[in-house]
Design goal:
The chain is built from four helices and four strands, in the order βαββαβαα. The chain has 156 residues and is α+β, with helices and mostly antiparallel strands. A hairpin with a 2-residue loop joins β2 and β3. The protein is elongated and about 100 Å long.
C-alpha cells in the first residue's frame, strides 16, 4: 500500500486532550480501512502564516499512514465535515522519515545555536559632518543665494 504523510491543523481553543482524541478517531478510520498508522507527532500550538477561518494559531499534528487511497479519502472526508479541523494535507511519499520531523528538531535547538541579538544591530554610519544652516521655508533652502534674496527685498 502507498505511504502518506498527513498533517492537519485544529482550532486553537481545543485542549491538547481533545486534539489527541481527534487523532485517535482518525487513526481508527485508517485501521478500519485495512491500513496502519506508523508515527504520530503533536507539534503543538503554533502561529499560522495567515488567518485561517478567523484563527491566527492552530494545533499541528502529523501522521505517517500506510493505507489504501479509499481509506485516506474517507478520513479526509470526515476531517472536512469536522468544524474543529481547520486544514489538512496528505502527501504521498516513497518512504517515511524514521527520525523526528524537521518541526520537532527545530524546537529542540539550544540557545547557543542561535545568534546573539547584538549581531543584528545596524553598523554605525560615522560622523556625517556639518550640514550647514537651513531655515524652514527660507530662500536658502530653495537654493537662492543670499545676494539674490537681498536684491529681491531691496526692489520691493
Amino acid at each position: 500500500m502507498p505511504l502518506y504523510e498527513h498533517v492537519f491543523l485544529v482550532r486553537p481553543d481545543l485542549s491538547v486532550k481533545q486534539v489527541e482524541s481527534l487523532l485517535e478517531t482518525y487513526k481508527s478510520v485508517i485501521v478500519e480501512g485495512n491500513g496502519s498508522v506508523g508515527k504520530t507527532e503533536y507539534w503543538g500550538l503554533r502561529p499560522t502564516a495567515y488567518r485561517i477561518k478567523k484563527n491566527r494559531k492552530a494545533h499541528y499534528s502529523l501522521m505517517n499512514i500506510d493505507c489504501s487511497h479509499e481509506a485516506l479519502t474517507e478520513m479526509e472526508r470526515q476531517m472536512s465535515l469536522n468544524e474543529d479541523v481547520l486544514r489538512f494535507m496528505s502527501l504521498r511519499v516513497n518512504e517515511w522519515e524514521e527520525s523526528q520531523s524537521v518541526m520537532m528538531r527545530r524546537d529542540a535547538r539550544t540557545d547557543r545555536d542561535r545568534r546573539p541579538r547584538e549581531s543584528f544591530a545596524r553598523p554605525t554610519r560615522g560622523t556625517r559632518g556639518e550640514r550647514g544652516f537651513r531655515s524652514i521655508g527660507g530662500e536658502q533652502e530653495r537654493g537662492i543665494p543670499q545676494e539674490a534674496e537681498a536684491e529681491r527685498e531691496g526692489s520691493s
